Prior knowledge:
Number of helices: 1
Radius of gyration: 13 Å
Shape: globular
Oligomer: single chain
Amino acid sequence: MGYLRQGTVVRILERHRILNRGVTELWVLVEGNYQGPGNVSRGWLQETVMEIFDNESRAITASRAVNR
């Protein structure tokens, strides 16, 4: 169990569709150093709680704008 702060950049490893009570949910397995330098962690997030960018550069630019 953990958390991410708004603006954290993570890498998407997998994407899955899950049927939950007749509703399709999209989940992503993410990986990143979001618990401190050198501490790589993985976890699942619903895709609806994140923005997905087509490359790392765009994600970092968006993250910097949020964290101002």
